[in-house]
Amino acid sequence: MRKFLTCLFIFSVALLQAQETGSIAGTLTDKEVNNEPLPFANVLIKGTTKGTTTDFDGLYEISNLEPGTYIIVFSYLGYETIEIPNVVVESGKVTTINTPMSASQGVSLDEVVVTTTARKDSEAALLLDQKKAISIKTAIGAQELAKKAVSNAAEATTKVTGVNKKEGSSKIYVRGLGDRYNSTTLNGLPLPSNDPRDKNIALSLFGTDIIENVEITKAFTSDISSDVAGANINIVSKEAGSTSLIKIGISSGGNSQTTFKDFKQIDGANWIGVNNDSKHSVRDLNLYNFNNSYTPENTTANPNLGVSINLGKKYQLSEESTLGIFLVGSFDNKYGYREGISENIVDVGNIGSQFSTKTFDYQATKMVMANIAYKINNNHKISFNHLFVHSNNQKIQDFLGTTNDVGRDSDDNRLVNLTLQTETQNRLFVNQLLSTNKLGESIDVNAALAYNAIFNDEPDRRKNTLIINNDDNTTRISQNAVRDNSRFYGNLFQTDIAGNLAGIKYFGDRYENKGKITLGYNGIISERKFDGIYFDHNFSSPRTAFVDINDPNQLFNQNNLDNGIFRVETSRGRNNDDAETFLPQLYDAEKTAHAAYVDAVYKFGDKFTANLGLRAENIKMNVTWDTNISFPGFSSNSSIDLDKDYILPTLNLKYELNEKINLRASGSLSYTYPQFKEIAPFTYEGINFQESGNPALLPSDNYNAEIKFEFFPKSNEVFAIGAFGKLIENSINRLERNSAIERDFTFDNSGDATVFGIEAETKLNLFDKEIGEDKRKNISFGANLTLMKTKLEFNTENTLFNYTGNDSQLEGASPLTVNANISYKFNKEEKETISSLIFNYQSDKVFSIGTNFKENIIEKAAPSLDFVFSHKFNKTVALKFNAKNLLNPSFERYRDVPEKLIMNSYKRGLSLSAGLSLNF
Q1: pLDDT at 121
Q2: pLDDT at 63
Q3: 57 pLDDT exceeds 80?
Q4: Integer Cα distance of 647 and 371 in angstroms
Q5: What's residue 13's pLDDT?
Q6: Residue 581 gets which letter from DSSP?
Q7: Nearest partner of 910 among 865, 880, 879, 859, judged by Cα
Q8: Alpha-helical runs (H) found in 685-773
Q9: Which of 77, 98, 341, 761 has the most Cβ atoms closer than 10 angstroms to its Cβ?
Q10: pLDDT, tens digit (0-9, with 9 covering 90-100), for 716-742
């Protein structure tokens, strides 16, 4: 009832909606001097006192305009005055008017270019937002995403200064801080994780069809969750534009080491990526009641396929009222194959298993999004977003090699074969109601409510461990532990109820004021239920349990179970008559966070603006588990409760030296709560590693500071440089510990960590000029660089782990990160050609922290280079071509000893794709 009343309260407030304003911007050129920029011209909205003048580059902008239709007047001493009638301004959008002016003749209307773009979509508009914002933030919009061939939100973030993506996943690191230190929102509302091992949802699930822009906030304000130290990543979804839209896209591609080659897929899944059999039906251990085969399907890797359709239409219901509907549906799949090595190296002469590896990976993702935006009038608007993402990942890992016991002696011709077949299926449901309301001339009320649900299933993960004897050409079972040959079923279900509420009072009217004060509330209630059960095969005589390596089903079947070749056990035993035998290992978790905040912005004159915020937040977390794992101080059936109150100030300062240069400073306090999976003592097992939680974890306290210089030479150019520092007290880290398992990972409050760094960013037009009638060429260059020094000083007094040395770099922190791109753009009437080269480099970084005399594992630097080409033939037809990973480097990890002994190595191959889109 309490949760229902909370939702009802937030929902009732959410019926109020404030209307955003729009703006008019553009460039004036001088026909008398070969269309050079025309500075100091006057731009006025006829019949009002609103206006501006163009700058040295002929650029102008009139912002904070009520939606409506205007007449724009351009004038310059000695030149013909131009009036542009019927200029439509829409809420939240920029109407761009580019026009030439002349002293000797007037200008015909067909020489004037008028377009309307979403403010949060175009590259220039987002730079303008960055320039005017009080806080330090960066955004990348749909226009820039297309130029850089970005296909999803995960790739989008890596184009931003100081952001790295972990190889082989969609996890990102911001200024050296990984998943647990970041937060993810959609339209300002929190999202659940789709993976029980992660805090944040996989950003790769969000394709660019639904993205208007991706905002990365690395300096914090009081209105966002304070459970963050790296960045808040906010995905802003699209809405219907002013014109009707029907867009159909189809693409295909392949990989140099995968496409049209032999491939293996898991039995039980299908090409479209839907598995309706996600739970086991075993109720009797004497019955081998598994629906899926142990034997993978041998097939061929076909070309990748992508299909999408976008539909958008806005209906004019009355003079002030509109209804916009935007729909997106998409499907895409991807085949991947790689070969490499995996070796467990402690030091020279201390080497465990050594394997050559083959990995077959197939992914299929379906997505549907609907947005309905109802503009009641110029003061009220309400919108609803629904997002459904269904993703399925099927992976087969095939390892072949030796261990300390098998295959090392000169006369030992045996090999160990490990095979792990894993399928992960995610179903994400997101429902959002967003509302704002404009009351009078100086008060806004904003509200939002979300209900999200995530189903994460891991149906029938199959593991085999075999010994191949090359002397007599036989293959038998290997059984050091019953888990060596097993099946696993895991199911996670999580719901989130979240709400935001903000009341804003301007010091003056809404558009001409000295600042504003905001009183607000953020809240979230998250509940998670996770269970997992192993079915282990215990062989009575492993040395005589022979198996056909190409058809394991000949051994794993009902007949051999009946004949006592093996018996099936769960992780709780093998007593068929004991109900607890079939009880899965499980944990239930709940987290509530309620925060009230006040945020004030005040302009001290024309140049200096200050933003001071204060946030009071209470966070409660309960994790209850029932597993077969005990931890010092905790039983295998126990729980923990964390309850913390925080008072968290934020400060953002901005000084405008002139209209092109900003100086900024920021400081804040925040915290980092441990995640459910980091606490719950449940063991996740990979093919040659395991990872489990630590119930003794405590929250971290974060101190953040930053200064920044910004220079905006032109409307779509920027140069910025800044320095930042962080202190993380009681930081949480992933570490490698000693155990009977070769690679055994867990988490610990390792000690206090410091992060210091310098960031630089530039976006410049190297060449931008009209070269003839209706023709224009542009060459642009963009780059960003991050230099960083991190230090984690181990707390050796209050820990169960024996750290190697006294300190370390932070996990995932690259001391040097470089992103660069150069783009060529040519326009002729409706035709447009864009080609880009995109480069990324991340220096060596810590993959995991070592203990018990094991040194850290380091992920080696690997540069990447991509090429993008697109051509728009007309308003209807466009073509795109991408070539990714042109350098095809080896991705390697090594033990941090002087010899830098390689532990893992593989290549991804060159990927090519081409796509066609039709716009109607």
Answers
A1: 56
A2: 82
A3: no
A4: 36
A5: 37
A6: G
A7: 865
A8: none
A9: 761
A10: 788 999 999 999 999 988 887 776 667
Confidence label for 120 from pLDDT (cuts 50, 70 and 90)? low
Give me the amino acid identity at 361: D
Give the confidence band of 149 by pLDDT, cuts at 50, 70, 90: low
Q: Are strands 137-141 and 845-850 parallel, antiparallel or unpaired?
A: unpaired
Contact 228, 324 (CB under 8 A): no
Q: In whole angstroms, give the CA distance from residue 460 to residue 466.
A: 19
Q: Is the pLDDT of residue 644 over 90?
A: yes
Q: Which residues contact 740 (CB under 8 A, 6 or more apart)?
A: none
What whole-number distance in Å separates Cα of residue 627 and Cα of residue 425?
23
Tokens for 212, please give them: 């208007």
Residue 18 clears pLDDT 60, i.e. is over it: no
The Cα–Cα gap between 289 and 291 comes to 7
Provide the sign of the torsion angle of the four alpha carbons 703, 709, 713, 717, taken in this order: negative
Q: pLDDT band for position 173 (50/70/90)?
A: confident
Contact of 59 with 714, CB cutoff 8 Å: yes
CA–CA distance, 176 with 701 (Å, rounded to integer): 16
What 3-state class would DSSP assign to 33? helix
State the DSSP string of 166-225: -TTSS-EEETTB-GGG-EEEETTEE---SSTT-SS--GGGSBTTSEEEEEEE-S--TTS-
Say how far apart CA 52 and CA 41 lie, in whole Å.
8
Token digits of residue 523: 């809240």
Tokens 């867990």 locate to: 746
Single out the residue of 181, 221, 174 nearest to residue 648, CA to CA. 221
Query: Is residue 19 very low, low, confident or very high in pLDDT (cuts 50, 70, 90)?
Result: very low
Nearest Cα to 117, choosing from 716, 914, 603, 858? 716
DSSP string computed for 379-430: SEEEEEEEEEEEEEEEEEEEEEEE-SSSS-STT--EEEEEEEEEEEEEEEEE
The closest alpha carbon to 214, from 182, 192, 240, 181, belongs to 182
pLDDT band at residue 88 under the 50/70/90 scheme = confident
Contact 103/32 with Cβ under 8 angstroms? yes
Query: Two tokens at 874?
Result: 């007309």
Residue tagged 């909370």 (tokens): 6
Contact 590, 530 (CB under 8 A): no
300 CB neighbour count, 10 Å cutoff: 10
Q: Which two tokens stand for residue 559?
A: 């007949």
- Contact (CB, 8 A) for 867 and 883: yes
CA distance 492 to 496: 13
Residue 116 has pLDDT above 60, yes or no: no
